[in-house]
């Protein structure tokens, strides 16, 4: 009879992980995280009051880690559909470089650590809001909405809209109306941004059984909804000026960028190829980045020059 040690049994039942540092970094969805951190910083920067630079850095770190944790848990849960979609085949889990339990443990530890650190080092309301943001993305969007309704990205988009509110609360200790406007800006920006991607990736979503709007309602209805959302964005985009957290430079740029965003949606409406959806997707990222960048710069001008 062959003598088999418990270590050998363990190694047979649980394959050794091939994951490297790059795979753990990929789990954090760094491109998504960078936009989350940027908008979170904007909320922190324009908020009234003062937060010690060290605590401000801690708050931004917690927002970044919380966003990364959400991405890791999302990849753990979605590993089955990621293995079907061309866009996500190379991720660590569907590629077989990492075990599911590793990704889940990594995400849970980061999520808990970011919330606890935010609550203890900055303030409890910011910690609770960060916890709600992570929970919304994981349980409401990823586990409930994404595979059940074509409105998944509309409702679930709230998770990506919370960071400026978290940044604001880190400074003030409460949720102010200007932070709600920044939340609304990202919330209403998300559907046309993501549906532009879904239009030229609809085959992937159809294979994976994800009921994105282009798959369920068709391209025409999706394009109509995208156009409507870009128009709804107009008053929301210029609202920071009227709420006193941005100046005339921001107001002018917000009006011009919003007009361009709508123009892209019009071009998508008439386009029968993937050309304009791809262009609109790229512009949508630039749109949000420039709005928040000018919001920050406008605030800098107001603090140190105005």
UniProtKB/TrEMBL annotation:
Catalytic activity as recorded in UniProt: heme b + (2E,6E)-farnesyl diphosphate + H2O = Fe(II)-heme o + diphosphate
Enzyme Commission number: 2.5.1.141
Enzyme class: transferase
Pfam family, one: UbiA
Transmembrane annotation, as ranges: 32-48, 54-77, 103-122, 128-145, 152-171, 177-200, 226-243, 249-269, 281-300
Keywords associated with the record: Cell membrane, Heme biosynthesis, Membrane, Transferase, Transmembrane, Transmembrane helix
GO biological process: heme O biosynthetic process
Places the protein is found: Cell membrane
Gene Ontology terms for molecular function: protoheme IX farnesyltransferase activity
One GO cellular component term: plasma membrane
Main location: membrane
Topology class, membrane: Multi-pass membrane protein
Associated pathway: Porphyrin-containing compound metabolism; heme O biosynthesis; heme O from protoheme: step 1/1
Record family assignment: Belongs to the UbiA prenyltransferase family. Protoheme IX farnesyltransferase subfamily.
HAMAP family given in the database record: CyoE_CtaB
Function: Converts heme B (protoheme IX) to heme O by substitution of the vinyl group on carbon 2 of heme B porphyrin ring with a hydroxyethyl farnesyl side group.
Additional remarks: Carbon 2 of the heme B porphyrin ring is defined according to the Fischer nomenclature.
Protein name: Protoheme IX farnesyltransferase
Organism field: Aliidongia dinghuensis
Gene that this polypeptide is encoded by: ctaB
């Amino acid at each position: 009879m062959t003598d088999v040690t418990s270590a050998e049994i363990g190694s047979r039942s649980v394959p050794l992980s091939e994951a490297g540092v790059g795979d753990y970094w990929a789990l954090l969805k760094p491109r998504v995280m960078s936009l989350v951190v940027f908008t979170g910083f904007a909320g922190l920067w324009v908020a009234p009051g003062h937060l010690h630079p060290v605590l401000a850095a801690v708050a931004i770190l917690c927002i970044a880690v919380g966003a990364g944790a959400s991405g890791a848990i999302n990849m753990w849960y979605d590993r089955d559909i990621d293995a079907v979609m061309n866009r996500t085949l190379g991720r660590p889990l569907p590629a077989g470089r990492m075990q599911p339990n590793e990704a889940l443990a990594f995400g849970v530890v980061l999520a808990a650590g970011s919330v606890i650190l935010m609550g203890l080092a900055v303030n409890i309301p910011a910690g609770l809001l960060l916890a709600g943001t992570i929970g919304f993305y994981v349980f409401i969007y990823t586990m409930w909405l994404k595979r059940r309704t074509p409105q998944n990205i509309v409702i679930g988009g709230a998770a990506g809209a919370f960071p400026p509110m978290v940044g604001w609360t880190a400074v003030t200790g409460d949720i102010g109306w200007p932070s709600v406007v920044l939340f609304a800006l990202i919330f209403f920006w998300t559907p046309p941004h993501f549906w532009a991607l879904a239009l030229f990736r609809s085959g992937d979503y159809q294979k994976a059984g994800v009921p994105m709007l282009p798959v369920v309602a068709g391209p025409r209805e999706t394009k109509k909804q995208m156009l409507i959302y870009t128009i709804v964005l107009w008053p929301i985009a210029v609202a920071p000026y009227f709420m006193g957290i941005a100046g005339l430079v921001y107001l002018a740029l917000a009006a011009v960028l919003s007009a361009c965003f709508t123009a892209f949606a019009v071009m998508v409406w008439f386009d029968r190829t993937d050309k304009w959806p791809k262009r609109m997707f790229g512009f949508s990222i630039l749109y949000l980045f420039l709005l928040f960048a000018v919001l920050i710069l406008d605030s800098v001008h107001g603090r140190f020059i105005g």
